[in-house]
Amino acid sequence: MTLVKPTIVLFDMDGTTVRHINPALLHVLERLDDASHKLAKLCSQLFHRKIEPMPLVEFRNGKRPKLLVHRALHKIRRKDVEEIVEPCPGIYDILDLLKSQNIPMGLVSNGLGKGYGHDILEKFDLAKYFDVTIFREDITRSKPFPDPILQAVGGLKRAPEKNDVIWYIGDRRKDILAAIAATDYLPCPVQPLAYGLNSSIAVLEHNIGVDHIIMAYPDLELRLRALLK
């Protein structure tokens, strides 16, 4: 899959737009998130029933998920967000470049918005870049399901058409899987871009192409400027 000029760009948050000052904390949060997904699949198999609905852009039974573990973790932490995360180096240059080209952008995260994600957007002046933001309490199924990406695309000012190309940039394997899955539900391709090692392995496993691997945003900026000419 050749990297094509984007007309819509979506970003993951933790590890992609901002990075944790203590990487061990991010690792724990990601492992807990992965474990919750695996537990749901196991329960589905054990009880011989599919407990997840098809990809949605609404809440199951009209209710928000309780997210008890996510909320407990954020209650335990008593630090301000600037003591926990910082913007990834070079991210503002990418965001400014995309904004200058009037390319719609969205933020798609498995993390909570209330008390965390929205605070990050405000503290680091990131909200102005994103036309839509999707957090864990906004959806029923989180990544690696495609639902968060589909909901983000559905929240844009215009619906994507067959000539559009959506980039989804993420740092985890589940980001790549979600982007691949989302293509089946949209009229245009979703091209996954791997930021860092974890997601890069998934790109290689699915033969997506090494040009979809990003190790530093300054490198992506050069490639993006060439594509946008």
Structure described in brief:
The protein is of the alpha/beta class. It has helices at 23-46, 68-76, 91-100, 113-123, 147-154, 173-182, 197-205, 217-227; strands at residues 8-11, 18-20, 85-87, 105-108, 132-134, 166-170, 190-195, 213-214.
How does this structure look, described?
It is a single chain. By secondary structure, the protein is of the alpha/beta class. It has a single domain (8-227), classed as Rossmann fold (3-Layer(aba) Sandwich). The protein has eight helices and eight strands. The protein has helices at residues 23-46, 68-76, 91-100, 113-123, 147-154, 173-182, 197-205, 217-227; strands at 8-11, 18-20, 85-87, 105-108, 132-134, 166-170, 190-195, 213-214. The strands form two sheets. It has a six-stranded parallel β-sheet, sandwiched between helices. Strands 2-3 form a two-stranded antiparallel ribbon.
Overall CATH class? Alpha Beta
Assembly form of the protein: single chain
**N- and C-termini, Cα separation:** 21 Å
Order of helices and strands: EEHHEHEHEHEHEHEH
Q: What is the CATH architecture term?
A: 3-Layer(aba) Sandwich
Biggest sheet character: 6 strands, parallel
Q: What count of structural domains?
A: 1
Report the radius of gyration as a whole number of Å.
17 Å
CATH superfamily: HAD superfamily/HAD-like
Uncertain regions spanning at least 5 consecutive residues: 58-64, 68-72
| Tally of strands | 8
Describe the global form. globular
Strands ordered across the widest β-sheet? 5-4-1-6-7-8
Overall pLDDT score: 85
Q: What is the tally of helical segments? A: 8
